[in-house]
Design brief:
The complex is a heterodimer of chains A (253) and B (666). The radius of gyration of chain A is 19 Å and the shape is globular. By secondary structure, chain A is an alpha/beta fold. Chain A has a 5-stranded mixed β-sheet. In chain A, strands 1-2 form a two-stranded parallel sheet. Chain A has a two-stranded parallel sheet with strand order 3-4. Helix content of chain A is 41%, strand content 15%. Chain A is built from 10 helices and 9 strands. In chain A, a hairpin with a 5-residue loop joins strand 5 and strand 6. Chain B has 666 residues and is mainly α. Helix content of chain B is 73%, strand content 1%. A two-stranded antiparallel sheet of chain B has the order 1-2. Chain B has 2 domains: 322 residues, ABC transporter involved in vitamin B12 uptake, BtuC; 291 residues, ABC transporter involved in vitamin B12 uptake, BtuC. The chains are: A alpha/beta (253), B mainly alpha (666). Chains A and B meet through strand 2, helix 2, helix 7 and helix 8 of A and helix 3, helix 7, helix 15 and helix 19 of B.
Chain lengths: 253, 666
């Protein structure tokens, strides 16, 4: 929605959104509705919104919300054979239609495609190491890697890079794996999404682990933070693709 | 260590326990050997001594081997801590998780994790120790009024555990991103990524073992009983304090390195005793080894057959089942004077004068709940237009929470009178947990699919009813010894907890639904649900007058009841059904936790309402008020965010109930 230059009246967990996402920024006048699973219905009703957007990620919410105002629910699950990036574009167009902003959605999509092409071009003609993308988690020596079925994997693919993690993933396109899995291939790079404080803590905790410190990619200093983002929108995927491209260019030329 | 402890007199044959331990160790070792040699043939094991870079070798060096060590160390520590607690407190049911020690340590760690992460770098152990100590102190304080009797200790421990759990859930509510990590951690995951934890735990365990050896003689005299010990000139108080501190510290160390592993500290000493080790010194030696063997085997089994599931879940599942089996076979703790008398010295009130007042109170409360709230403009009293606008959203929640409170309170009165146990309640005895268990099983069975309509209620009913049957089955055998009934409750609550952790970790997309339900959220209640709940309350209110006479007589004991012509079996079955119905329906609305069923009957008795019928009616009114107030507070306090009613009720009710116990005349 923000990509389409439409400011929502209110969102769930606005603080969380503001903390995590730098681009696009959530304007300060947007109200908070409470938690994602239980947005405050009384408040929603009193705000008298024109339209409520929800997703199939919150099963049953559509029925609840329909009692209050018109609801549009975008289908979060991928159609068979559909890539997450295409799904993201589809959602962009869908929201564009609902908000009467189809032309803007098309423009946004074109711009994004242009930015991806530029990245591809900048990286072209060289071989790059395979890349892990993940969230650092705290406490137990696990990492959540993004792979098949995730929009970040698509971002890598679209700019011509290889994802180093080819194992199983869950329906969110992530998998929680032990950090020892990062040992292979030895020349891989690890990009992690930097969520500020919690990532710093996680990295600090990992650095006390002898296993972590033995990992080839740690010893070679191939652990790189990326700007924070939500892992769903096309816009954030392209932002990350650009950040990765920029890093590779500066480090490997 | 073995030299100092094994000076026991020569035995004719080795106790069975020794063979059991050896068997477990051999089994675990052969599993470990099998798995290791698959990855790396035994002739290459020497390579592990040098630093390596190949992923396979890294895995063994920094993950597999430390994990094995940590399982052994943790098992030893918990076995020792359990034996110490049991000796010092003279309660065969004491162990870190039943005493609330683990829960206290865990809560302290979560708070630190969220608000002062810097503390965890060097002071992890002391954060855990602080939490564990506060919890232990609280439990001892709660039990002190009743001479630290085993029952009082367990009740105290359970309250503290419940309360820590609630506080933790509220923390999680506001820190959803940290949620999954917290859960995994709590579940007792033994995964290691290096030797840091082993290096942390090993010297501490060694120190604790040395101290235990030094204490062994004094602990021995403790087990003789107060008089015997005093005769030998041992300072009892000192020994107990040192023993408690030692056990608490051990538990804190375990929680801070691997999380909560429930029941091991209970199971190991019991198995050792069952296996024929009679003397305390023998137990002090054998229980830690038994603990180590049990946990190692459990961990190997988990790794082989349920990869990814934290071992703590397995251990509490196994432990809970084991305990349920052990319960009827336990040798009795020394009988305590009956707890069934009403100690309150309040003068008996004329209940028929109180009830109208309570009724008016209810009406006023409901009006306030409906009209006073926070909105976009802040605190205000709604006008009629606003009420009309929000009616369909607000009313079902108010009605449902009123009904749930009433049901729990009625269930509480019935169960307290039926068992003659003032600490009984649907929540404390695990009936709510049973209902929750039913629902969780439903979740596990229908993995990923939509829940069939009405199935939740059926499963909850079934769960509650089966639990009640088990409870009463145990109760009849032991003449309703409160110890056992409460313990069964604890066991069931833990079982529920670990099964729900399984669902949580499995990443089921209905996770949010389950979480919100477990924490007692009325968010999804609509008018049909609310009216169903009201109908159940109505049924209860119509049925209870018929049972009032039974309930007046039952606390006097089965024989007396039969003598005055109560059809015992039929009366109990009928009451059972009523309680199951009340609990299951209420649990569906406000989740398995909340102290309403425990507190409300208490308040009534303490204010002098003694007869069954006015107690039932009064409880229904008061329960309704309390639960709906909790719901209202949850809806308004941190607007637009919401705290589930069940959580809120526990959060407020817990301390109140603890105060109640503290003030109670011994």
């Amino acid at each position: 929605m923000l990509a389409l230059r439409v400011t929502p009246l209110a969102v769930n967990q606005s603080e969380h959104f503001r903390e995590r996402i730098e681009d696009p920024r959530l304007p300060p006048q947007v109200l908070d509705l409470g938690s994602e699973s239980e947005p405050n219905l009384e408040l929603i009703k009193q705000l008298k919104p024109d339209l409520l957007l929800t997703s199939t990620l919150n099963p049953g919410q559509r029925q609840t919300l329909q009692r209050i105002a018109p609801v549009r629910e975008y289908i979060w699950e991928l159609a068979p054979g559909q890539s997450p990036y295409d799904k993201g574009l589809e959602t962009l167009f869908q929201v564009g239609d609902w908000l009467d902003r189809r032309p803007q959605a098309l423009t946004v999509a074109e711009q994004l495609e242009g930015r991806l092409q530029a990245c591809r071009h900048r990286l072209n003609g060289r071989t790059w190491p395979p890349i892990f993308i993940g969230d650092l988690t705290r406490g137990k020596g696990f990492i959540r890697l993004y792979a098949r079925n995730s929009i970040l994997n698509d971002a890598l693919r679209l700019i011509g890079l290889d994802n180093a993690w080819r194992g199983e993933v869950d329906e969110y396109g992530k998998n929680r794996v032990g950090i020892e899995q990062l040992a292979n291939p030895q020349h891989a790079l690890l990009f992690y999404l930097n969520y500020g404080k919690s990532s710093v803590r996680a990295l600090h905790e990992l650095s006390t682990s002898s296993l972590w410190n033995q990992l080839p990619l740690v010893r070679q200093g191939h652990v790189v933070p990326l700007p924070p983002t939500y892992v769903s929108g096309v816009q954030s995927a392209v932002n990350l693709a650009e950040a990765i491209t920029a890093y590779l260019e500066t480090r490997y030329v | 260590m073995s030299e100092a402890l094994s000076v026991a007199p020569p035995r004719r044959a080795l106790p069975v326990a020794v063979w059991v331990i050896l068997g477990l160790l051999v089994l675990a070792a052969s599993m470990a050997y099998g798995q290791l040699s698959q990855v790396l043939p035994p002739q290459r094991w020497a390579e592990l001594l040098a630093p390596q870079t190949a992923p396979q070798l890294l895995l063994i060096q920094y993950v597999v081997l430390p994990r094995m060590c940590i399982a052994l160390l943790t098992g030893t520590a918990l076995g020792l801590a359990g034996t110490l607690f049991q000796t010092v407190l003279r309660s065969s049911l004491a162990e870190p998780s039943t005493l609330g020690v683990s829960a206290g340590a865990y809560l302290a760690l979560s708070i630190a994790l969220l608000y002062a992460p810097g503390l965890l770098d060097d002071g992890r152990e002391w954060v855990a120790m602080a939490g564990a100590s506060v919890a232990t102190l609280l439990v001892v304080l709660l039990a002190a009024r009743r001479g630290l009797s085993p029952l009082a200790l367990i009740i105290g421990g359970m309250l503290v555990t419940l309360y820590c759990g609630t506080s933790n859930s509220i923390l999680v509510l506001f820190n959803q991103e940290a949620l999954s990590e917290l859960f995994v951690w709590q579940a007792g995951d033994l995964t290691q990524i290096g030797w840091a934890n082993v290096q942390f735990l090993a010297p501490r365990l060694a120190l604790a073992l040395l101290l235990t050896i030094a204490l062994a003689r004094m602990l021995d005299t403790l087990s003789l009983g107060d008089a015997g010990a005093r005769g030998l000139g041992v300072s009892l108080g000192m020994t107990r304090v040192v023993g408690m501190l030692l056990a608490t510290w051990l538990s804190a160390c375990v929680v801070s390195s691997v999380g909560v592993i429930a029941f091991l500290g209970l199971a190991a000493p019991h198995l050792v005793r069952l296996g024929g080790v009679r003397r305390l010194r023998g137990q002090l030696l054998a229980s830690p080894v038994m603990g180590a063997a049990l946990l190692w085997l459990a961990d190997e089994l988990m790794r082989r057959f349920a990869n990814g599931l934290p071992t703590g879940i397995a251990s509490s599942l196994l432990g809970a089942v084991l305990l349920l089996w052990l319960l009827p076979r336990l040798r009795d703790t020394p009988p305590r004077p009956g707890d069934s008398r009403n100690h309150s010295r309040a003068r008996a009130l004329n209940p028929w004068r109180v009830l109208p007042v309570a009724g008016i109170g209810l009406v006023l409360t409901v009006l306030m709940l409906l009209f006073v709230s926070q909105g976009p403009q802040g605190w205000h009293i709604s006008d009629l237009a606003e009420i009309r606008e929000l009616w369909s959203l607000r009313a079902p929640r108010v009605i449902a929470s009123l009904a749930a409170g009433a049901m729990l309170a009625i269930g509480g009165v019935i169960i307290q009178r039926m068992t003659g146990n003032p600490m009984a309640s649907p929540e404390v005895m695990g009936i709510s947990s049973g209902a929750a268990l039913g629902v969780i099983l439903l979740f596990l069975m229908t993995a990923g699919r939509a829940l069939p309509e009405g199935a939740m209620l059926l499963m909850a009913l079934g769960g509650a009813f089966i639990t009640l049957l088990i409870l009463l089955g145990l109760g009849w055998r032991s003449a309703f010894a409160p110890d056992r009934m409460l313990l069964t409750g604890v066991v069931l609550a833990t079982l529920t907890g670990s099964l729900s952790a399984m669902v949580l970790i499995s990443g089921d997309p209905r996770l949010n639904l389950l979480l919100s339900w477990m924490s007692g959220s009325t968010y999804r209640v609509d008018f049909p649900d609310a009216w169903t709940a009201c109908a159940v309350v109505l049924v209860l209110l119509l049925c209870t007058p018929l049972t009032a006479r039974w309930l007046d007589i039952l606390p006097l004991g089965g024989v007396t009841a039969q003598n005055v012509g109560v059809p015992l079996a039929r009366a109990r079955l009928f009451l059972l059904l009523l309680t199951a119905l009340a609990t299951a329906t209420a649990t569906l609305i406000v989740g398995p936790l909340s102290f309403v069923g425990l507190i409300v009957p208490h308040i009534l008795r303490m204010s002098g309402v003694r007869q069954a019928l006015p107690q039932l009616l009064g409880a229904a009114l008061l329960g309704a008020v309390v639960m709906s107030l909790a719901d209202w507070l949850g809806r308004t306090l941190i607007y637009p965010w919401q705290i589930p009613a069940g959580l809120m009720a526990t959060f407020i009710g817990g301390p109140y109930f603890m105060l109640l116990i503290l003030k109670r005349k011994a």
